[in-house]
Amino acid sequence: MHERAGQPAQPQDLIDVEKVVSSYYDLVPDVENPAQKVVFGTSGHRGSSLDAAFNEAHIVATTQAIVEYRRGQGTDGPLFIGRDTHVLSEPAWKSALEVLAAAGVEVRVDARDSWTPTPAVSHAILRANGAGTSAGVRTTGPARADGIVITPSHNPPRDGGFKYNPPHGGPADSDATDWIAARANDILRDGWEKVARVSLEKALAAETTGKHDFLSSYVDDLANVVDLEAIREAGIRIGADPMGGASVEYWGEIGERYGLNLTVVNPNVDPQFGFMTLDWDGKIRMDCSSPNAMASLLGKMGAGAAFDIATGNDTDSDRHGIVTPDAGLMNPNHYLAVAISYIFTHRDGWPAGAAIGKTLVSSSLIDRVAAGLGRRLIEVPVGFKYFVPGLIDGSVGFGGEESAGASFLRTDGTVWSTDKDGIILCLLASEILAITGKTPSQIHKDLVAQYGESAYARIDAAATKEQKAKLGKLDPSDVKAETLAGEPITARLVRAPGNNEPIGGLKVTTENAWFAARPSGTEDVYKIYAESFRGAEHLAQVQAEAKKVVDAALGG
């Protein structure tokens, strides 16, 4: 923990905006250097211009690759493009438009020439493809829409990010991203300067470039997914902190449009994010699940707080942070369990068989809540893309990740978004209070009394590149241990039970505990997620034995 974690940023913590932007244009990546290639993680390509990892060359090449990919898929409808408030997002947006216009792609930009949350882009794609109509969502056939979101999510101000959402509206799967990344790197090798482009002025004036009112389309539709009338009638006092991100104008419009007692806390937009408090490692990071990054908002929720519910969103608004007067910032796992417990008992229009989706490193409290509700649980690998098919056809009512990302169906049981939507998860907290009279943290206490209290944590353990590669390819038979922290092992998983997809690591379970180990994509470590319903001491024992189990399986 950094000595200034949770304290306001100082001048020495701030980026040099001019240098970050000039580096975007001036530095050219070496595609033979792995750190400077196009690499799509679970949320697109990310990096900093200062490291030659997110530069004009990357965006030109990646956009051209997307042009070719969508053409090969027969996707010839409009491409919705949005950006967040990171300083590199606008230069990347301009570069992408220049390539898209030259290729004759029909593009839809924000009508306000402003910032666009990730869920608003997903919403726009789905609506264009028939969501909310009797025909349903068209993910195949001609005239399908898709999208690009330019955001590094909650990453520090020096970073940029670029991700592709195909016609299903959610994150692209690995087949798509692997192809796009490989093609982009080929273009970098062959000479990205050869890619056809037009000037920004010509791109914006092109017949193929149109405008879309992302804000109105999204905000007008919100009443069909959250009970905003109940929130208004109960007079819930909401403090919404956009954390300098793309939701800043959305929250003000939501409050006005629906007559809510809503205050936009800290409406500042600053490319340096100088209003932030430092995260655990001393960096500026807009992580709404971090008590250090959320310290300013937490300071407003003490005794005599002006808000009944306070919320935070990361920079592209796909994550949520929930703050209550009685408990402060809720653990993301706790809030997911509460949201699931509430929403599956307050959505009469949902299909009776609609399942609950969770990632395999999310809390087992969700498993117990699902069993109590009599609902099917679908446990998938890390990555929101695995919830997309179920959200589209209504077979999954709620999909959530331990990293504070989730979405759920409209009140009529049809799809709302297929990407994470931090805005509706924040509004749901106020709906819960309005309908039940209890804060989400109070309901969590009720769930603990019913299902037991767990201790949950994540730690890192050192691993070589070879060990990380082996961890991603383990077989259950590689785990020789019969017990874990004094309990018989009940399952050894290398594939997710919900969809049989590889988890890229290992999960071991017992009656009252589990651990999951996954290699880091950026560091020479593997991550150990663990949980115990027998207390903190037992959790520590689980963590210690987990490392031994994994090391033994890796031959260490």
What do these coordinates show?
This protein has helices spanning 17-26, 56-72, 89-102, 118-128, 174-190, 200-205, 214-221, 228-234, 248-258, 295-299, 332-343, 365-373, 388-393, 422-436, 440-451, 465-471, 536-553; strands at residues 40-41, 44-48, 79-83, 107-110, 146-150, 159-165, 209-212, 237-241, 261-264, 309-313, 320-324, 328-329, 355-359, 377-380, 396-401, 405-408, 455-462, 483-484, 487-488, 491-495, 502-509, 513-519, 525-532. The protein is α/β, with parallel strands linked by helices. Among the domains are: 15-217, Alpha-D-Glucose-1,6-Bisphosphate, Chain A, domain 3 (3-Layer(aba) Sandwich), CATH 3.40.120.10; 455-553, 2-Layer Sandwich (TATA-Binding Protein). The chain has a 7-stranded mixed sheet with strand order 1-2-6-5-3-4-7, with helices on both faces. It has a 5-stranded mixed sheet with strand order 9-8-10-11-12. Helix 4 (118-128) packs across helix 7 and helix 11 runs parallel beside helix 12. The radius of gyration is 23 Å and the shape is globular. The mean pLDDT is 95.
Question: Keywords for this structure?
Answer:
556 residues, alpha/beta, Alpha-D-Glucose-1,6-Bisphosphate, Chain A, domain 3, TATA-Binding Protein, seven-stranded mixed β-sheet, five-stranded mixed β-sheet, 17 helices, 23 strands, 33% helix, globular
Summarize the SSE layout with pairings.
Layout: H1 17-26, E1 40-41, E2 44-48, H2 56-72, E3 79-83, H3 89-102, E4 107-110, H4 118-128, E5 146-150, E6 159-165, H5 174-190, H6 200-205, E7 209-212, H7 214-221, H8 228-234, E8 237-241, H9 248-258, E9 261-264, H10 295-299, E10 309-313, E11 320-324, E12 328-329, H11 332-343, E13 355-359, H12 365-373, E14 377-380, H13 388-393, E15 396-401, E16 405-408, H14 422-436, H15 440-451, E17 455-462, H16 465-471, E18 483-484, E19 487-488, E20 491-495, E21 502-509, E22 513-519, E23 525-532, H17 536-553
Parallel strand pairs: 3-4, 3-5, 4-7, 8-9, 8-10, 13-14, 13-15
Antiparallel strand pairs: 1-2, 2-6, 5-6, 10-11, 11-12, 15-16, 17-23, 18-19, 20-21, 21-22, 22-23
Helix pairs in contact: 2-3, 2-5, 4-7, 8-14, 11-12, 11-15
